[in-house]
Amino acid sequence: MATRVERLQALFAPLSIDSFLVSSPSNQQYLVGASVMSGDGYLLVTAKRAVFITDARYQTELTQVIPQIPLVITRSYLQAVNDVLEADGATVLGIEDQLTIREFEWLDEHLMTDIVPLADVADELRQVKDADELAAIRRATQLTSAGLEALFTVLKPGMTERQVAQWLEQWMQEHGATGTSFPTIVASGVRSAWPHGQASDKQLATGELVTIDCGFYVDDYTSDVTRTVALGDPGSELKAAYQAVQAAQSAIVAAVAPGVTGDELDRIGRDFLTERGYGEAFIHGTGHGIGLDIHEGPNIGRGWPDVMKANEVITIEPGVYLAGRGGIRIEDDILVTSDGHEVLTTVPRNLIIL
Fold first, then answer.
1. Which are the contacts of 282, defined by CB distance < 8 A and separation ≥ 6?
2. Burial readout 11-33 (b: 16 or more C-beta within 10 A, e: otherwise)
3. What are phi and psi of 337, to 5 degrees?
4. How far apart are CA 144 and CA 222, in angstroms?
5. How far apart are CA 96 and CA 110, in angstroms?
6. Is residue 140 within 8 Å of 218, Cβ to Cβ?
7. Is 98 helix (H, G, I), strand (E, B) or coil?
8. Nearest-angstrom CA–CA distance, 265 and 116
9. CB neighbour burial string for 165-196, b if at least 16 within 10 angstroms, e if fewer
């Protein structure tokens, strides 16, 4: 079986390049098979080899972490890129869009090779997960599901949104999570109509909806789960909106399978909510891939041509946001299987009234 670096090298001919500079920490981690801290340097892949360019501060650590990748130890990272390219006879270098303008300008001025900006080359390799990656994502989604259910046993009026987020994050860390993949969103009452409302010092109140959107790392891979719950009866209008979102999400999830596009999945949920009068209140995309990063391909939204493939893990997260009243989002993590899909998250999807 080809290694991840070899899979990247196999793309050189179709892309008309003979080398590739990997600057994204997540792409570096994916290709070498271990975490390397942001700022450690560059992974340079030529048709002949792969080397990691770094400095002496990280030499001992990286020799142990990625023993299969030769290190180039230097304080002049970009000059080392030039030296390796010349030694290997490279003529066309592909670069990622994470490079800074200053880095690009140096390369453009000093390299003898041509430079070709290429977006999403290594990112697209990451979309289809292998068995070890899927096992890590399963652990992350299972633990996050358990954490949310534990949170619902203590959630009550009077807690602040910030206290809710802190409680969940502490529980997750105590049970094996290594960190969050984004700041935990807790938005209550009228603030639940803010799709990315950050946790604040607002106190939860009876009769309000509370939206909690969280992602946690386990073994380097993240979950991404959202639930909206109610503290007492939220009223008929918000309950009807919740039922519409739940039904829309169920319809989208039922259609997940290899071959369907992101646009097609989005249209299922958007058309459903539009028919029920909530079309203009669904103001974001339907989902995205997850893995080493919280947002990866494939993209699921209006106009996205991305085709679902087996062993991708995606989110399905329709929402309805009614300004001044409240909002609802339900998000699950879905494994695309060879003949359909599997829902990895296990938190109940019906409206939970606490």
1. 269, 270, 273, 274, 318, 319, 320, 321
2. bbeeeebbbbbbbbbbbbbbbbe
3. -105, 175
4. 9
5. 18
6. yes
7. coil
8. 33
9. bebbbebbeeeebeebbeebbbbbbbbbbebe
Give the percent of the chain with pLDDT over 90.
95
Rounded to 5°, angle at Cα 60 from 59 and 65:
95
120: left (phi over 0), alpha (psi -120 to 50) or beta: left
- The DSSP 8-state label assigned to residue 198 in this structure reads B
Amino acid identity of 37? Answer: M
Nearest to 207 by CA among 237, 244, 180, 249: 237
Nearest Cα to Cα of residue 164 among 191, 142, 137: 191
Checking phi first, is residue 243 left (phi over 0); if not, alpha (psi -120 to 50) or beta?
Answer: alpha
Task: Give the SS3 label for residue 1.
Answer: coil
Residue 51: name the closest of 68, 34, 36 by CA.
68
Residues 281-327: tens digit of each pLDDT = 999 999 999 999 999 999 999 999 999 999 999 999 999 999 999 99
Amino acid (1-letter code) at residue 318: P
52, β-bridge pairs: 43, 71
Q: Which domains does the chain have, with CATH numbers?
A: 4-126 (3.40.350.10), 128-343 (3.90.230.10)
3-state secondary structure of 88: coil
To the question of pTM greater than 0.90 for the whole model, the response is yes
Three-point CA angle 95, 101, 104, nearest 5°:
40
Quote the CA–CA distance of 83 and 17 in Å, as a whole number. Answer: 17
Inter-residue contact 213 to 345 (CB < 8 Å)? no
3 state SS for 296-346: EEEEECCCCCCECCCCCEEEECCEEEECCCEEEECEEEEEEECCEEEECCC
Q: How many CB atoms lie within 10 A of CB 303?
A: 11
